[in-house]
Specification:
The protein has 300 residues and is mostly helical. The protein is built from 8 helices and 4 strands; from the N terminus they run ααββααααβαβα. β1 and β2 form a beta hairpin. Residues 44-53 and 74-109 have low confidence and may be disordered.
Amino acid sequence: METTQPSQDDLLKQILGTLHSVQHDHKQLSTAVLHIQRRLDAEVEPRSWQHLMTESDQNARSVQRTLEKKDDSAKASPAMNPSASPSILSLDGTKGSVLSGKPASPQRGMAPGLSSRIILTTYPGQSGIDPLVMNWGNANPSQRGPVVVSRSQNTVRRRNAIGAHGGSYSVYHALAVASKNLDLDHKADFTNAQPAVSIGPFPQWADAKKIVSMDPLGHLAPWLFDSIIQDENINIRPTIAVTRAHMKLPELEQSVRAGRLTPDGKICLNGTGELAVTKFAVEPVWYLPGVAERFGIGKR
């Protein structure tokens, strides 16, 4: 008896059909997960985590059963690889096979009591929430209070702002934590990191209406609020960096060579026209009531 081997075109068609099936299943899964996430975000009153897990598991199982039925016909194809089946990431961080429906072991490294659901802000009415007092514009730093935004385990319940340090660079911090190259509760060491020059205070720092888009105490935060950092183990970081540097401009070098500019060793340092400068790197800190007032809108 002679057997016919499938041609290369037939195999390619089978592979293409399988890829289309996987792509369709992935879109359906993404839609289901997005629907679940929107339902969770729409919750006004917080519900128990166990209830959320039960509901999410039911939705996940419903999606799994749908995909299993659609995949039964594809399993018979010689191009299918059962070990390469798509997977689901549940709300508790466990990853399971869509085809088998068997969950894998929980994610390692997740601290007890932490969930994979990210809460952007906290409210004083929530259980255990006790944000540090912020009195923007107060001339006394201890009464003004620090800007606290960290989500570290000992700080998340005391924070009084939303956002992340580092602006767009916060993505790299998140990647370092996700790849386990940086501890989730890592605290920076600010030894010998004081501002290179002394700045202020100025009268504008004590006027809540004058400065609304940056923290005037941001360059001194770790040192002004050192007692809170040490006594309460709160993660407080600066939002302004002040350093010295040398800046070289071709135009100034030409001016020195032409005799139009004479180096004084303090500002213009040498014959190449290098300048002694002070640099400021500033993270925006928005005082929302002040911003709202400037735009003529309500605080809410």
